[in-house]
């Protein structure tokens, strides 16, 4: 064929194509970031300034909106609730997910397939559509309108994927590790805790991020389960806040900025782990 | 010398394994299996508020699908879910594929662009919804402000208040929020293609378009399978963006109504009419659930068939 006589592969890619690719990527990154930048800049402005000069740089020493959001609204309470709910849910997911994952991965049993299928079903079913019976169940258990209503729901949603992540990893550990400890007379719980689990920190981090981000951001379940303002999480509290200050745009942007700040900063610091964790279900 | 692995596990060992597996299974049974099974059952009963009434058979289902008050609302909303699904397939997943291909070549600024495209993905949908609601404000939002300052006054619109643009605005806000996800999943898929394959195609004189269409697209089929299935499930569960940006009634005039909003209104009521109907809500949830399970499984099986082992 004429492949050998044609140009080298590198020159096959015309320079104009590379240029076009750069233009598209820069335009896209601009579209992705500029709204976030405008949000932060507007938070330093008064409502009048936002309406008059929407694109101008603000006076960054003007932090009145932030002071008001943190000092006069329930935003700090929402924040604490989000931390409590997300932290407890992720902890429970890791503990229960590691228990089931360890049992399935390290002990041969006829029930293993059944257990995995059981959790696989949980992975596929959108629990959102079972919110009515969940609502009634939580009411009967006396958990409605409490943080626990959210914690048990999120744990149930996150548990199946954690079981698969943990089992998938634990299965790859060589059995010599266990056997050596067993010959030394270590008990089964001791082998799990001191020999195997210290090696399983990377998949735990992935399972933690994969669950923490959607839990932190969730809005649907608090909307249905929580009524009392003092127990609302950040996304739900934000709707209350946005409803109270509809005309004070400086406050609205400051509220949005404060709500977005923790996860955005954490993402920028740990982008590799975030991307790996959040795409873990879709990337093999 | 050889330790027999066939010996029956000791009682102590069995108790230990049971201790590990029983709590997670009990937890899942109580908070996932039981609610989902009850959701089916609830749909066959009449409900007075939170109290379950008598068994009414398929009455709730009939009402949802063919009733004079419910059915037009449900079908109108269903159509909007379908529009959103098709538009997002193209904009979000298609756009993600193209962005991934540009990133795959690791051009200048690769690391920056990769991080930037994923920033909106980590934000809460509530933040994204409110942010775009403010930007799309007819008088003071930056979209119309930008059009005014460019002298394009006639293009300015009350985007969310106009029946012809509201649903499109919601779809674009959703695409802005999530396009980073398919981008990075496709990027990971492309990075798994053995580089020799692409190099060989280049040597054969394949042009960029043919390379994408005949080599890259078929080889990232596993990513496509999972992304299209996830989008399908997401599009029919769509709730947060419409709720925040246009409200529970899918205003203006129901032109942005989707099944998630209909379900919420039916089951938990809304501000104007606080009537709760758990029976009809459960029937709608059951139908939606069956629709999603059946079509998502068919979609997955169909997409799986085009996956190539390499």
Can you tell me about this structure?
The complex is a heterodimer of chains A (284) and B (310). Chain A has helices at 9-12, 15-43, 47-52, 64-72, 75-106, 112-124, 131-140, 147-170, 175-183, 188-196, 201-217, 220-225, 234-244, 249-269, 271-278. With 284 residues, chain A is mostly helical. Chain B has 310 residues and is mostly helical. Chain B has two domains: 11-42, no CATH class; 62-305, MetI-like (MetI-like fold, Orthogonal Bundle). Chain B has helices at 11-42, 59-66, 70-104, 110-122, 125-135, 142-149, 166-178, 180-191, 195-203, 208-219, 221-236, 240-246, 259-268, 278-305, and strands at residues 45-48, 51-55. In chain B, α2 (59-66) crosses α14 (278-305), α3 (70-104) packs across α8 and α7 packs across α12. Classes of the chains: A mainly alpha (284), B mainly alpha (310).
List keywords for this structure.
heterodimer, A: 284 residues, mainly alpha, MetI-like fold, 15 helices, 73% helix, globular, disordered N terminus, B: 310 residues, two-stranded antiparallel ribbon, 14 helices, 3% strand
């Amino acid at each position: 064929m004429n492949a050998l006589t044609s140009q080298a592969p590198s020159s096959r890619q015309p320079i104009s194509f590379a240029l076009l690719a750069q233009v598209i990527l820069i335009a896209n990154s601009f579209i992705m970031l500029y709204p976030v930048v405008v949000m932060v800049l507007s938070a330093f402005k008064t409502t009048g300034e936002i309406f008059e000069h929407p694109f101008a740089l603000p006076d960054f020493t003007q932090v009145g909106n932030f002071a008001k959001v943190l000092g006069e609204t329930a935003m700090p309470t929402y924040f604490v609730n989000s931390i409590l709910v997300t932290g407890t849910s992720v902890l429970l997911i890791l503990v229960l997910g590691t228990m089931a994952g360890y049992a399935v991965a390290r002990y041969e049993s006829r029930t293993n397939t059944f257990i995995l299928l059981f959790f696989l079903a949980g992975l596929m079913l959108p629990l959102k559509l079972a919110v009515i019976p969940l609502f009634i169940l939580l009411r009967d258990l006396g958990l409605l309108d409490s943080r626990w209503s959210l914690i048990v729901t999120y744990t149930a949603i996150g548990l199946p994927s954690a079981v698969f992540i943990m089992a998938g990893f634990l299965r790859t550990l060589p059995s010599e590790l266990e056997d050596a400890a067993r010959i030394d007379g270590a008990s089964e719980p001791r082998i799990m805790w001191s020999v195997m689990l210290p090696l399983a920190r990377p998949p735990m981090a992935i399972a933690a991020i994969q669950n923490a981000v959607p839990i932190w951001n969730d809005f649907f379940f608090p909307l249905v389960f929580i009524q009392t303002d003092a127990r609302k999480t950040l996304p739900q509290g934000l709707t209350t806040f946005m409803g109270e200050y509809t005309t004070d745009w400086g406050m609205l942007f400051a509220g949005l900025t404060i709500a977005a700040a923790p996860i955005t900063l954490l993402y920028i610091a740990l982008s590799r782990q975030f991307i790996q964790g959040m795409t873990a279900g879709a990337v093999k | 010398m050889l330790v027999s692995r066939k010996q029956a596990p000791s009682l102590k060992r069995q108790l230990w394994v049971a201790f590990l597996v029983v709590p997670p299974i009990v937890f899942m049974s109580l908070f996932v299996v039981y609610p989902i099974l009850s959701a089916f059952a609830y749909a066959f009963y009449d409900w007075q508020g939170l109290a379950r009434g008598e068994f009414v058979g398929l009455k709730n289902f009939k009402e949802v699908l063919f009733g004079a008050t419910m059915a037009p609302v449900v079908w109108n909303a269903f159509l909007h879910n379908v529009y959103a699904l098709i538009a997002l397939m193209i904009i979000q997943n298609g756009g993600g594929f193209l962005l991934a291909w540009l990133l795959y070549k690791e051009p200048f600024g690769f690391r920056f662009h990769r991080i930037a495209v994923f920033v909106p993905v980590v934000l809460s949908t509530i933040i994204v919804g409110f942010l775009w609601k403010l930007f799309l404000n007819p008088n003071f939002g930056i979209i119309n402000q930008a059009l005014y300052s460019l002298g394009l006054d006639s293009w300015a619109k009350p985007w969310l208040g106009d029946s012809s643009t509201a649903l499109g605005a919601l779809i674009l806000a959703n695409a802005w929020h999530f396009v980073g996800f398919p981008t990075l999943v496709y990027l990971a898929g492309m990075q798994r293609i053995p580089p020799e394959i692409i190099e060989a195609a280049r040597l054969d004189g394949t042009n960029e378009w043919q390379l994408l269409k005949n080599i890259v697209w078929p080889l990232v089929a596993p990513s496509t399978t999972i992304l299209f299935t996830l989008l399908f499930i997401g599009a029919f569960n769509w709730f947060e963006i419409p709720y925040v940006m246009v409200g529970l009634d899918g205003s203006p005039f129901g032109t942005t109504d989707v099944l998630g909003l209909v379900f919420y209104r039916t089951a938990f009521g809304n501000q104007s009419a606080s009537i709760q109907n758990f029976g009809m809500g459960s029937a709608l949830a059951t139908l939606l659930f069956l629709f999603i399970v059946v079509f998502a499984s068919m979609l997955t099986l169909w997409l799986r068939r085009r996956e190539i082992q390499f």
